Amino acid sequence: MSIAAMVGAPVKRREDPRLITGQATYVDDIKLAGMLHMAFLRSPYGHARINSINTEAARNHPGVVAVYTAGDLKGAVGTVPVAVPLGKLTEGMGVRGPLAEGKVRFYGEAVAVVIADDPYTARDATDLIEVDYEPLPAAIDVEKAMQPDAPLLYEEFGTNVVFGIHPPTDEIDKAFAETQANGGIVSKFRLENQRLAPVSMETRGVVAEYRKADKTLTVWCSSQNPHLLRNNLCVQVGLPQHQVRVIVPEVGGGFGAKINIYPEEAVAAFAAMRIGRAVKWIEDRSENLAVTTHGRDQVDYVEVAATKEGKVTGLKVYGISDLGAYSHLFTNVVMIAFGFPVSCGAYDIPVVHLSADTVFTNKTPTDAYRGAGRPEATYIIERSMDVLARELGMDPAEIRRRNFVQPDQFPYKSAAGAVYDTGNYEPALDKALAIADYKALRAEQAQKRAEGKLMGIGIASYIEICGFGPKGSAPMGLYESARVRVEEAGTVMVYSGSSPHGQGEETSFAQIVADEFTIPIDNVLIMHGDTDSTPEGRGTYGSRTIALGGSAIFNAVQKLKEKMKQIAAHMLEASPSDVTLEDGKFSVAGSPQKAVSFAEVAQAANHSNTLAPGVEPGLESTVFFEPEACLFPFGTHICVVDVDKDTGEAKLRRFIAVDDCGRQINPLLVQGQVHGGIAQGVGQAMFEGVEYGEDGQLLTATLMDYAMPIAPELPSYELDHTVTLTTVNPLGVKGVGEAGTIGSTPAVANAIADALGVAHVDMPFKAEKLWKIIHQG
To answer: Coil, helix or strand for 201?
Structure first.
């Protein structure tokens, strides 16, 4: 393989050897001298008043160093940050302190913390804390929580509704009336996008160490954004940025849940500062299921209109977002900021009406979970297309084809407000149909139906918005950064503000650098996850890292290439405009024999006496990349399912995915991301769901109760792609980390409805539910 052809090459992940041989370092591997351990007493109630807390027995327990309640932290530890407060959040509703004070509002909320010599003593001592709870009625069902007589989480506000968006309906009413007057239809239905738990392999964890000599706090944490965590810890514990360092070692998955800033991190920092010894906390799995932010949990009332020829004329959505008990970083904007802009999907829909309410309930706070708003929006529009196709007697593939935004319409401004820069949706649909042999599948389905068997075919043509970072889209700015330095011997050091956690950017970032410098990939080292050595970045989430972080690296490399050409030109006694770089050598155009190596130029750059006048020594460039717009990957997924009439069990027989994420830096990494995304999307459709009792008790507190897919329950995926370059960044890349999750869930849902011959079934599609539909109607 030519060293100049790294971008687009299926390079194996360079980070894998240390991971699969057990040589990686995770937070729980951090062991410091004199380190203490932390455990939390958590509420057994979903909603209760705290009348009193007695910690005396726990404080006197052997091995216990300290016990803290909310009163001990008051004024010393700040509240959990909210990125974009809206509605009553601006008035103080839903503000979360480090420990519950006066009231607990969800099962598992931390009431007290014990710091002890070892984790077992800390946990035992939490059992000695006496709390006088006064149980209160709980608001669990989000629609009931909106009613005037619902139990209130925050009595002083007189409601559980945080904010609402209710624009006038004149335009959509007119579109519906005209459609019906001309012989078209308006379909109405209700959807539930159930609550999910992210369940990364590694739970959350934190180690905090405070050095009194230099007044520095170092925090090791399993996080998706080290700089954001550092910045917020500074505010929460009252230290300037130069005194706080956050180190993110290996992260065993995050899926959005580790974007957040949690109370445990600030409490660990406080305890380390107060006691003067390092403090560690590692979340156990039951805590993970109970208190790490959940995802989805949205109810939608949908109305969609179409002509009798299948052209969609209007879409009306009223969404209700269940926020849980508090607002975290993005809790209150997941639906309206991430989902609503792509409500039209890949379709040219002239009129759209979007309204919403966000509501507090006595459940764990929700926030971003892989896809964050986009899976919910895609589920709505893709279910809508199938409902329309069913009522009009059209093929689901054909109704999509008739409504796609056409290539000559780009850049295209959707009626939902988003501006799609590029797209070409029909080739992705056609390729997926060809791989599936769609006509043969429909023929097989007809034969099976004649035999009384249930087989379903589901199609979902999705679009997502990602690569978040347009200027002005967030108060803090959503740029990404890179510092690239060429060492004297020719090794390239890259310090990225992004913080990968399983996506493979240590490999793909190195491919970008190696490709541009035309050097071996082994000569490129990627550093990330340490706020003391990396430039300020905004983290890894929202399918943004290769598009923003990769573009920052690319631009930094361009600056260094130009400087190296200047230096090489001086060495070759040529004009910089005549110097080219190929296969690791700078040469004069037309005279390839007159050349100097990449390493020779790097050495010259670090020896100022060999440089031309006016050229500074050294080869280092720091770049911040903030795009002008978001990105819009797309694709088509097809699912084939068989349902057993006798048991109700559904089995996925085939799954085809054709995705378009622009230029692929590394096809192997793209496939890996799609594989994982599909598995999680299928998990939501078929198995997963966080459930609470009416009193707020968590009913899915272990992995025995919270069902997740395992390998035998998933088919072998049939993957392909199309390539439509974006104009938003210099690499032409889009995101792919969430694509599999966004496209797969509605494909499965459409297949199940198709198999049963019904308009709609709410997820998850467990055997008992499907059996009842088959046998009881």
So the answer is: coil
Q: What is the pLDDT of residues 267-318, one digit of tens each?
A: 999 999 999 999 999 999 999 999 999 999 999 999 999 999 999 999 999 9
Topology of 35-136+204-282 in CATH?
Aldehyde Oxidoreductase; domain 3 (3.90.1170)
Where are the domains positioned within the chain?
A: 35-136+204-282, 295-466+630-776, 470-625
Q: How many CA atoms lie within 13 A of 289 on its CB side?
A: 19
Do 295-466+630-776 and 470-625 agree at the fold level?
yes
Q: Which two tokens stand for residue 97?
A: 């302190």
Handedness of CA 445, 448, 450, 455 (dihedral sign): negative
Q: Which residues pair with 527 in a beta bridge?
A: 495
Q: In a 3-state reduction of DSSP, which class is residue 393?
A: coil
Specify the pTM: 0.96
What's the burial of 420, exposed, middle or buried (CB within 10 Å: 0-12/13-18/19+)? buried
pLDDT digits (tens, 9 = 90+) for 725-763: 999 999 999 999 999 999 999 999 999 999 999 999 999
Q: What local confidence, expressed as pLDDT, does residue 3 receive?
A: 56
Q: Is the domain defined by 295-466+630-776 classed in CATH 1.10.8.60?
A: no
Q: Would you say residue 475 has pLDDT above 80?
A: no
User: Quick check: 331 pLDDT over 70?
Assistant: yes
Whether the upstream peptide bond of residue 411 has omega within 30° of 0, thus cis, is: yes
Strand partners, 588: 579, 591
193-203 burial string, b = 16+ CB within 10 Å, else e?
A: bbbbbbbbebb
**pLDDT tier, 170 (very low <50, low <70, confident <90, very high otherwise):** very high
CATH class of 470-625: alpha beta
